[in-house]
Design goal:
The chain has helices at about 10-20, 35-55, 60-65, 75-80, 95-105, 120-125, 160-175, 190-205, 215-225, 230-235, 240-250, 260-265, 305-320, 325-335, 340-350, 350-365, 375-380, 400-410, 455-465; strands at about 5, 25-30, 70, 85, 110-115, 135-140, 150-155, 180, 420-425, 425-430, 440, 445-450, 470-475, 480, 495-500, 505-515, 525-530, 540-545, 555-560, 570-575. The chain has about 575 residues and is an alpha/beta fold. The protein is globular. Bound molecules: nicotinamide-adenine-dinucleotide. Nicotinamide-adenine-dinucleotide binds next to helix 1, strand 2, helix 5 and strand 6.
Length: about 575
């Protein structure tokens, strides 16, 4: 049986040990006391039971547990005969160096030594081992909780060789996780750097009296689609953790000075959910309830100003060759649950708009937020993102452009700006600037197919804005229809009632089309499927999933995508 060692059985270590055990490895788990190890094994057992209940574990819980062998305060014993060591001890460079020196002394010469550090230099840790082992020292940065979070950042230090990176990429895949390779040992790697920029911009907007924490969170959630607002996430994870990581990164030259609004909370020991109060108040320490963050507040702040510093950081990482653009976006989507990566967001917001926001930050005195040369270059070349067909990514000629051109031909005069409303089933809808009617467009043929009067679809658009799918039911015969069919063709009537349908349905069948719409970042294939809704009608829609993972009858869930700053909504389904 392949064997690995996990050193440190705390928050991260026990989760990492569980993952390797589930993947079939014998795991040597070590920590400084029997008590800590007992607690870790108990937590692993509880977690495994949950995994089993969800049907994600074929083996018995006891079989997986039996592969984890505790070693009390014995790094040397634990690393005997292993092919990989993952260190997850406290975030203290001296402790880590001691552990690495010991692991180096006792582990087989070919073993890879990985550290789960969030903020310390991989290169410095590598210097604690003998020179011939240094190429085998690498960062393997899991996210909390490791069992649930899909991302692992694999970080190359100065000495790390490609073979080691390849091995750790393979281990990561065997654990069922998504690897992202970080080519340079920069403080905070990808995810924590981008998060730190967002935390800082949020914090300074509040510190300067330009926004309230609630407004920042409303913008982040309702305009950009983050699952949690910036301050809410700080409360959730622990403001003390954020201060600690930010300070460690600052020591290594990252970012500007500490922002007083977050620093104050740390000094007051108002760490968030764990202490019962942070930026929001909670019923009791450790008890999380979602605070009420009114959606209306999202109009109080320009999302581009809030996100531009994070985009700037992503541009820097790309220009410096720290990671590819796809990996930067993937890391942020998987590590922070953003619906889009920072480079994708930049393309949507417009590179010129982002540059302007960064210039505003610079003029407020934040010199480190001067627009990155890569952003300036894109702006200069007119690569402004989606609206020009190219930014960080290339986009097919946009449907807006195609429809504008068609209308211009039709009317024989230029059209200023076309108002796009929704895209449904690959059928984009625009408002005809002349007649006010809604135009449905056949994307394949770029042909205006048919028009509907505006008010007939407003309920549908309104529903999507609330994250709901609406359908019509004929008041006479009771038949149900899904847009673009709105009226009842049987009764030839528009006497129909709008109703809300469930956000979950059952996939009946699907087909794979090899033309991917730009909004589908995850998969190379573009799937269109028929989804049976519980109300008794079918919806044809995009399915955002790897086609190999689809099964007839599987449950799929509605995803509504609102574009920041644009009057544009798209929806699709993804596996529930
Ligand atoms: N908690 C997170 O969200 C998170 C996320 C990603 C990475 N990390 C990183 O993972 C590492 C561990 O963090 P954590 O949150 O699990 O910390 P933790 O405090 O929960 O666990 C650390 C464990 O290491 C043990 N330890 C200390 N010295 C040791 C030694 N010499 N030998 C063996 N064990 C020793 C401690 O007893 C403790 O159980 C840190 O480097 C941290 O930066 C943490």
């Amino acid at each position: 049986m392949p064997r690995v060692a996990v050193i440190g059985a705390g928050t991260m270590g026990h989760g990492i040990a569980e993952l390797f055990a589930m993947a079939g490895y014998e795991v040597h788990l070590t920590d400084i006391s029997q008590e800590i190890l007992d607690k870790a094994l108990k937590s692993i057992e509880e977690s495994l039971k949950k995994v089993k209940e969800r049907g994600l574990l074929k083996e018995d819980v006891s079989a997986v547990l039996s592969r984890i062998k505790p070693f009390v305060n014995d790094v040397c014993g634990a690393v005997g005969g292993v092919e990989l060591v993952v260190e997850a001890v406290v975030e203290d460079i001296e402790v880590k160096k001691r552990v690495f020196a010991e692991a180096d002394r006792c582990a087989p010469p070919e073993a890879v030594l990985a550290t789960n550090t969030s903020s310390l230099p991989i290169t410095e840790i590598a210097e604690a081992v003998r020179p011939d082992r240094r190429p085998k020292v690498v960062g393997m940065h899991f996210f909390n909780p490791p069992v649930l979070m899909p991302l692992v950042e694999i970080v190359k230090g100065k000495y790390t060789n490609d073979e080691t990176v390849k091995k750790v990429v393979d281990y990561t895949k065997k654990l069922g996780k998504e690897p992202v390779v970080v080519n340079k040992d920069v403080p905070g790697f990808i995810v924590n750097r981008i998060l730190a920029r967002l935390n800082d911009s949020a914090c300074w907007l509040v510190a300067r009296g330009l926004a309230t924490p609630e407004a920042v969170d409303a913008v982040a959630m309702y305009k950009v689609g983050l699952p949690m607002g910036v301050f809410l996430l700080l409360d959730f994870v622990g403001i003390d953790v954020a201060c600690f990581v930010a300070e460690a990164m600052r020591k290594r030259g990252f970012g500007g000075g500490p922002c007083p609004v977050i620093a104050e909370k740390c000094q007051q020991k108002k760490y968030g959910v764990k202490t019962g109060e942070g930026f929001y108040k909670y019923p009791a320490p450790g008890k999380f309830t979602r605070p009420n963050i009114p959606k209306e507040l999202s109009d109080k702040l320009n999302p581009v100003v809030l996100f531009a510093p994070a985009v700037n950081e992503a541009a820097y990482l790309l220009r410096e060759g720290v990671a590819t653009r796809e990996d930067i976006d993937k890391a942020v989507k998987l590590g922070l649950n953003w619906p889009k990566g920072p480079l994708e967001l930049a393309d949507e917001m417009g590179i010129d708009t982002v540059v302007k926001a960064l210039e505003e930050w610079t003029s407020m005195g934040f010199k480190e937020l001067a627009p990155d040369p890569l952003l300036l270059q894109l702006a200069k070349e007119g690569k402004l993102g989606r609206k020009t067909g190219e930014g960080f990514y290339k986009y097919a000629k946009s449907v807006v452009t195609a429809v504008t051109e068609t209308l211009e031909k039709l009317y024989g005069e230029p059209i200023k700006q076309l108002e796009s409303l929704i895209t449904a089933t690959g059928v984009p809808v625009y408002r005809d600037p002349r007649s006010g009617a809604l135009l449905w467009v056949d994307v394949r043929e770029m042909r205006l197919r048919f028009t509907l009067s505006v008010n007939k679809l407003e309920k549908f658009v309104e529903g999507l804005q609330r994250g709901r799918l609406m359908y019509t039911q004929c008041r006479r015969c009771g038949a149900k229809y899904f847009p673009p069919q709105v009226d009842c063709p049987k009764c030839k009537t528009s006497d129909v009632e709008w109703r809300e349908t469930s956000t979950e349905g059952e996939l009946i069948t699907w087909t794979v089309i090899n033309v991917k719409p730009a909004s589908f970042s995850h998969h190379s294939d573009y799937v269109v499927g028929i989804v049976k809704m519980p109300d008794g009608f079918n919806v044809t829609a995009w399915i955002d999933a790897d086609p190999k993972a689809l099964k007839p009858g599987m449950k799929v869930r509605l995803v509504v995508d609102r574009r920041p700053g644009e009057n544009y909504i798209t929806y699709w389904f993804k596996p529930a």
